[in-house]
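Title: Comparing notes on inverse folding

I've been comparing how different people in this forum approach sequence design from structure. To keep things fair, I'm posting one structure and asking everyone to reply with a full sequence. Here's the target:
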């Protein structure tokens, strides 16, 4: 069977209009060419913590590009420099055909627009058509091509028209609405400008919100413009003057560049400036109020339904103790989604839940404890993480697109989720909360298991001797209660074997305590091998051990004692050491009604042991 060609698409926050429209073009063209698209993405705000950025953008480390037929990368949307640098280096090293959308990258095809000329057209429109002089600017992130070129276009247009620009006319934002709001607050401290030009629509809408809250009319008092033609730009009141970047066409051309092998490595798409109400030059027919209301209503209903589901999901995934419980809880949310298939791929459990470290990478192999396909749930054993999904899934599936998102908690890597054909995963900013909820649940499971292991260790330290791993006095008397109760109920007998190591003092004095400890541990090991599991073994003192159990006749006690002696003798003969393994034993048998004071009975066995030790010295 011939495998379909595979495209890796890498971008941050694909629910944002810009990335989403580019991806829409990629998916349409890939569908026409019968290709699969793997979308590697995450959602992280620019100002989030370093740990969250590390955890989220690690998804860019997952794809092995040699296994793909082409790569499309939206570098500007991956707002974490270490991840970008690593990603570009890996793409180049793979030698796989690759396209960079917007920003030019050496060694890769490029498809983009002229951010510079498009932004300059808007500024010149305000100067020449509206005869404005005081125009302020809200710029984006200047480290990226988009932010840098759009800012330079504004400065050049102002300079070419002889209009000076002061520092307080510039606000440095990061492409979100809050940046626009804060920009207006800064501008209000000085004389309000005639126009505010924003490097994207989100900041422009934030600016208009704050202007309206402070009583400014748009465009009568202040003109506002954006860039990108986001979906909300048309519906906002007033509608926003902006630049249509024709992102879908960018996406289609990106796919064409991968497989048509054009000599032209750089393709530039013409943009279109859309003049709307926010500058007073509305050139678009207004949508019918009924249509606007219906569209808004549908979006609100979908959003509220998704939000309610995510809230319930967060509560349901709280307090889980293991992965099986997580998978069971997840099932109803998977079924209730629009995903045709879903795969929760988790890193190697030995690394996920290790005692002394956390997992900070995608392990070589992953497993799928929860898979949903063809309306049924199943699971898959280990496979190579670089394959993203097992071969048997990829061979059986129809042409589709997969959305691959990270499962993480801060910098800890738990794995990744793969959804098949989900529009919710592509278009809703709430979709990232899916994997956030899963990541938090796994972190709680990790902590729960770690706490349980620590409790077990503490309990073991309380009950067990650390050198020999047999019961210490506290553990012995605690566990002996169960055996004592059974002996009294059944009216059977109890026996005690007291063992004292021969020659330990000489070994410690002449060979050192490290050898002496090995001597003690060896005797303890023999006891654990020989003594039946229903009996208790205690390290009573430095070189003393006690064996306690039940029996009907004295014969059982005697057999156990003889087995201990024989095992010590055999071990001594097998191994060549500078000292001999030897021990003296004392045994005592007691009726059930004699069991009120266990310490007294141990002392009786101790006395009998000393009798044997004396006999050896004669």
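Reply #1:
Here's my take.
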């Amino acid at each position: 069977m011939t495998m379909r060609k595979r495209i890796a698409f890498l971008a941050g926050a694909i629910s944002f209009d810009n990335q989403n429209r580019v991806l829409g073009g990629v998916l349409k063209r890939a569908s026409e060419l019968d290709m699969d698209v793997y979308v590697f993405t995450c959602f992280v705000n620019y100002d989030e913590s370093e740990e969250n950025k590390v955890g989220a953008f690690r998804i860019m480390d997952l794809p092995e590009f040699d296994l793909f037929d082409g790569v499309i990368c939206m570098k500007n949307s991956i707002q974490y420099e270490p991840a970008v640098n690593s990603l570009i280096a890996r793409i180049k090293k793979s030698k796989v055909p690759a396209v960079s959308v917007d920003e030019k990258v050496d060694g890769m095809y490029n498809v983009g627009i002229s951010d510079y000329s498009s932004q300059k057209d808007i500024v010149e429109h305000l100067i020449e058509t509206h005869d404005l002089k005081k125009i302020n600017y809200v710029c984006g992130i200047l480290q990226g091509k988009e932010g840098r070129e759009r800012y330079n276009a504004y400065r050049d247009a102002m300079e070419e028209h002889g209009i000076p620009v002061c520092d307080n006319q510039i606000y440095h934002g990061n492409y979100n609405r809050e940046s626009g709001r804060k920009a207006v607050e800064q501008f209000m401290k000085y004389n309000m400008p005639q126009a505010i030009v924003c490097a994207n629509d989100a900041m422009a809408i934030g600016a208009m919100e704050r202007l309206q809250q402070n009583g400014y009319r748009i465009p009568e008092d202040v003109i506002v413009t954006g860039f990108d033609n986001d979906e909300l730009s048309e519906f906002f009141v007033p509608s926003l003057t902006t630049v249509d970047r024709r992102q879908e066409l960018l996406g289609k051309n990106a796919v064409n560049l991968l497989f048509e092998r054009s000599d032209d490595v750089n393709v530039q798409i013409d943009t279109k400036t859309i003049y709307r109400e926010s500058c007073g030059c509305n050139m678009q027919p207004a949508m019918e109020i009924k249509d606007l209301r219906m569209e808004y209503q549908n979006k609100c209903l979908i959003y509220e339904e998704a939000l309610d589901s995510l809230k319930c999901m967060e509560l349901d995934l709280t307090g889980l103790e293991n992965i099986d419980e997580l998978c069971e809880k997840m099932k109803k949310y998977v079924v209730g989604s629009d995903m045709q298939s879903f795969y929760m791929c988790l890193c190697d459990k030995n690394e996920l839940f290790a005692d002394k470290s956390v997992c900070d990478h995608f392990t070589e192999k992953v497993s799928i404890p929860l898979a949903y396909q063809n309306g049924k749930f199943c699971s898959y054993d280990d496979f190579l993480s670089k394959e993203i999904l097992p071969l048997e899934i990829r061979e059986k599936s129809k042409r589709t697109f997969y959305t691959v998102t990270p499962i993480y908690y801060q910098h800890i890597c738990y794995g990744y989720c793969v959804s098949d054909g989900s529009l919710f995963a592509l278009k809703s900013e709430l979709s990232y909360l899916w994997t956030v909820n899963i990541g938090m649940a796994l972190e709680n499971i990790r902590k729960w298991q770690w706490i349980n292991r620590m409790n077990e260790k503490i309990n073991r330290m309380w009950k067990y001797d650390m050198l020999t791993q047999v019961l210490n006095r506290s553990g012995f008397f605690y566990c002996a209660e169960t055996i004592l109760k059974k002996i009294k109920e059944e009216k059977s007998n109890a026996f005690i074997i007291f063992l004292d190591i021969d020659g330990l003092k000489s070994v410690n004095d002449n060979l050192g305590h490290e050898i002496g400890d090995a001597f003690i541990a060896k005797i303890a090991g023999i006891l654990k091998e020989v003594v039946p599991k229903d009996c208790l073994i205690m390290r009573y003192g430095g070189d003393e051990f006690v064996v306690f159990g039940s029996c009907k006749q004295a014969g059982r006690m005697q057999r156990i004692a003889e087995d201990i002696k024989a095992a010590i003798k055999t071990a001594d003969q097998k191994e060549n050491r500078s000292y001999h393994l030897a021990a003296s034993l004392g045994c005592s048998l007691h009726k059930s009604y004699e069991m009120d004071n266990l310490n007294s009975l141990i002392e009786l066995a101790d006395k009998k042991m000393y009798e044997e030790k004396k006999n050896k010295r004669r």
